[in-house]
Amino acid sequence: MALLERNEWYDIARDTNWTPTYVSQENLFPPTMSDPYQIPIDEWETFDEPYKVSFREYVRTQREKDGSAYSVKAALSRSRFYDQACEGWASVLKLHYGTVALTEYQACQFQARMVRFGPSPSMRNMATFGMLDEMRHAQLQLFFPHELVHRDRQYDWAHEAAHTNNWAVIGGRHAMDDIMMCRDAVTGSLMVSFAFETGLTNLQMIGLSTDAANMGDFTFSNLITSIQSDEARHAQLGTPTIEIMVRNGYKEDAQKILDIAFWRVWRLFSVSVGIPMDYYIPLEQRHMSFKEFMHEWVNRQYVRQVEDLGLAKPWYWQHFLDDIENHHHCQQGGIWSWRPTVWWNPPGAVGPKERQWLEKKYPGWNDSYGTYWDVITENLLADREEKTHPECVPIICNMCQIPISNRPGKAWKARPYQFEHEGRRYNFCTEPCRWIFTTDPNRYKDHETIVDRMYSGEIQPPDLDGVLKYMGIGVVSEGGRDGYNYQWIEGFRSAAAE
Amino acid sequence: MANDSNELKPLKTWSHLAGQRRRPSEYEIVSTNLLWSTDGDMPWALSPNIDMNKWYLKYRNQSPLKHEDWDAFRDPDELVYRTYNIKQDGQETYVDGLLDEHNRNEHDTGYGKDWLECLAKSYTPARYLIHTMQMGSAYLVQMVPASTIENCAMLQAADQLRWISRISYRTKELQKSFANLDFGGQERNRWEKDPSWQGFRKLMERTLVTYDWAEHFVALNLIAKPAIDEAFIRQLGKASRRNGDMLLALLNDAQMLDSERSRRWTKALVEFALNIEGNRTILEEWIKKWEPLGDSAIELYCDGLPDSPEASSEAKIAVKEWRQSIGL
């Protein structure tokens, strides 16, 4: 073949900036959509993506990847895996698809913002592939759960979740609208490509595909690995942007942007990944604890990457390390207790063996979280299931939209962090969530949490049925129940009998 | 728990497609009703007065072009991501073959001086023009009110990157063959200054700052793209055949296949919009407003093509006839 190599013509294809004269540069690239820092255009023209690909290579590679992903699915759809899969694993899938599929699709619009308003032609070209990648991820993660919807209506949430007002969805939308959908191209590329994709999701996928393989779900494992290979490419959009910002005197802005996004995504991540890893996946198949995963895969890499770029780890690092020990344990307790409000069947799964494992991985778990589950276990052993459903309404964080909670036990630390603004008192779960609000109160001040909506009259009738219906429960599918029908308490019963 | 689970019947497909009396296609399963920002009055879950909510309210929700159910739109090609890649991989293999074959035949050595000047003036600067369509299509992606429209715009944006890449590839080949002609160096200046490009540059700069999603669609897909199809793709293709440049003629024919797909969904979206009373007036007013810019761009560009005295009038008639053929 007498064809040119990509590197021979590539620079020409990303030399497409021009000077407009029929309209103003400012109107063509409005700062609120493009670059609010107004870094000179020749600086943006130094943008050099670490990973290069041509359209020709892209369609060939992606065709091959899809061929592989869809053929594995076809082969495995003939297997009986999903007939035999435990409800713990099914809950991982339902939670994953419900929170991820449409989020990937909205990400197409964000990538398109970089294609239209990115100040660098390289960014615009790379984001074009990023946009296509997100289309792929949305379509794959709709097509696969669609195959399962005839088994169980809870899989319908893969498509419907984002259209409901489920409390978990309100949290996800608030965070994604904040860091992705309502940001200019430059700020968003840091938040999405770097903090979100490089920092957390790229690694999440590595962990999740390992879990899936351990469970024997090779369809899902293969799917996630394939998606991760796209993310690893388009996530690299963030790095050159940070370099240009730092070089042009916007180091503090870059730091703040990353710190906001990392925390926002972390709060969701610890629920959507931490709980499955430490509770939903059966003990025999757990390959590492969430804490081990965070320390081995996320923390060290993230710190190294930000420091390589001349930035520092977030100011709240100590809070973050503390949160790794606590947040997902709190939310496992909360979600399980309010299980009728979610679209999956969260297993309690804290029998004697699991508690031993949790104590080993999280020393002190029995004296803290264990005391919460002691009460639940006692009630279940005494056939008082109804007492395992709380009657109180939690306080919701005005930033992450997740119930405010903290480590139970002797030193119960739960308290809201508060902030008064224009006569309204806002409650936050942690200092970083409060800090984010204070960086731009006008941005966040009008949003109402699910509990605010109960009191404001938006939810009618304002009783339990009304709230559940408002959240899509009993509308899209039935709500959750204990994933193992309380089998996990049997170990305590037999221990008591002995 | 007092939910209504007893009334929830088993599903064969997504609940939102369950009302159809047939099996949904893969296209429907993965493409329909995917936007969360069109569910409520406020697009995004932040304060109503932040810039991005105001932008979407003004330029999308309050667009004069109305439809009560944009989500009912369907791409006539029903393309999904994986079928797009299968088709374009095949098309790119064909284009690779063209380039390889012509390179082996030392095709470029046969160019005369006048034709080389035409390539430098009217062909290689087109990467700037096509990049503006990539940007404009991406604007539609983020602003259209339904995922089924968004998908069409996404693939249209990707098509543009495809042709920017191929034109850049050819620019490099020409640069290597004719080092004295500044291929790869002179295009920006031509795009910004040469009279033959100023009509298209004006049209595209104005299109890009037209932020109402529907007017942007009209300017891009009903005026600019068809004008570029007819002037740059078809008439330059014709001129290239007359000047013995069969490679460019075949490349432009291949590009036209992408444009024809774009025209199919554009036609479908216009027909879909015309079902609503009032929309015809809106679309016709916008066409009246934009058509002179499109015609002028065609004239300026075609007048610069060699051996093509009819090019301008043919191109202008062709775009008008196409718009008439889709009811406008």
Q: What does this entry look like structurally?
A:
- The complex is a heterodimer of chains A (498) and B (328).
- By secondary structure, chain A is mostly helical.
- In chain A, α6 (87-117) runs parallel beside α9, α7 runs antiparallel to α11 and α10 (185-215) packs parallel to α13 (251-280).
- Chain A has one domain: Ribonucleotide Reductase, subunit A.
- Chain A is built from 22 helices and 2 strands.
- Chain A has helices at residues 6-13, 25-28, 41-44, 55-77, 81-84, 87-117, 121-146, 157-160, 167-181, 185-215, 218-234, 238-247, 251-280, 290-308, 317-337, 352-361, 369-381, 431-439, 441-444, 450-456, 464-470, 490-497, and strands spanning 417-421, 424-428.
- Chain A is 61% helix and 2% strand.
- In chain A, β1 (417-421) and β2 (424-428) form a beta hairpin.
- The longest helix of chain A is centred in the N-terminal third of the chain and has 31 residues, at 87-117.
- In chain A, 54% of the residues are buried.
- Chain B has 328 residues and is mostly helical.
- Chain B has one domain (78-325): Ribonucleotide Reductase, subunit A (Orthogonal Bundle), CATH 1.10.620.20.
- In chain B, α5 (126-143) packs antiparallel against α6 and α9 (213-242) runs parallel beside α11 (279-302).
- The longest helix of chain B has 31 residues, at 147-177.
- Chain B starts with 25 loop residues before the first helix and ends with a helix.
- The chains are: A mainly alpha (498), B mainly alpha (328).
- The interface between A and B is large, with 88 and 84 residues.
